[in-house]
Amino acid sequence: MRALAGLGNQGDEYAEHRHNAGWMLLDVLERRHAIIETKDLDRVQLTRIRMKGRREDGGPAELWLMRSMTYMNESGLGVARGCKELGLSHEQIVVAFDDVDLPLGKVRLRESGGSSGQNGMKSVIDVLGTQKIPRLRLGIRGENVAAGTADYVLSRFDKNERDTAAEMIEEAADAVEMVLRFGLIAAMNRFN
Prior knowledge:
The model has no long low-confidence stretch (mean pLDDT 94). The protein starts with a strand and ends with a helix. It is built from 6 helices and 7 strands. Helices cover 35% and strands 28% of the residues. It has helices spanning 21-32, 75-86, 119-128, 149-153, 162-182, 184-191, and strands at residues 3-6, 34-41, 44-54, 60-68, 93-103, 107-110, 135-141. It has one domain: Peptidyl-tRNA hydrolase (Rossmann fold, 3-Layer(aba) Sandwich). It is α/β, with parallel strands linked by helices. It has a 7-stranded mixed beta sheet with strand order 2-3-4-1-5-7-6.
C-alpha cells in the first residue's frame, strides 16, 4: 500500500455525517503522524504522512492520503487523479468508505469486490475499470436506520452512537497502519 483514499463529501456541512467516515479516518491519521507534504490538485488533495517504523517491504513508513475534492458520487475522478499524480496502480491503494450494510463500529478489509451499494466506491470502480481494489469498509448502520438510505447516510451519528463511531475510526487507523507495516493479509487476519 502506498496510498489511502478516504471517501467523503467536501464542505463543512458534511463534516460529521456518516457518509464522511472515510474523511474522518484521514483526519485521525493526519493527527497521529507527521505531515511531510501536501499537494492540492484538480479534484484531489494529497497529504503525505510519515509513521514510525518501516513498511512491509523495508521502505520508510510513509503513506499518501487521498481526499477526493469531488462529491461522493464522483469520487473515482479524484482517486484516479491522485493515482496518476503519484504513479500508482489500483493495487497500491486502499479505499476507505462508509458502509450502511455493516453495523456501526465494524471494520472490514477486503482485497477486492463490488461497491456494496456505495456510490463513491462504485465511481472508483467505474473510473479505475476494475473491482480489484483493496478496500476498508466502515460500518455506519445504527439501530435507528431511516427509511431513505440517502437521508440516513447524510445524517450525523446520534449522540449515543458517537463514541462507537470514534472508536471505529481509531480501529480503522490501526488497521491502516498494520496494512502499511505488515501487509493486507496480516491486517485482514487481525481486524476482520
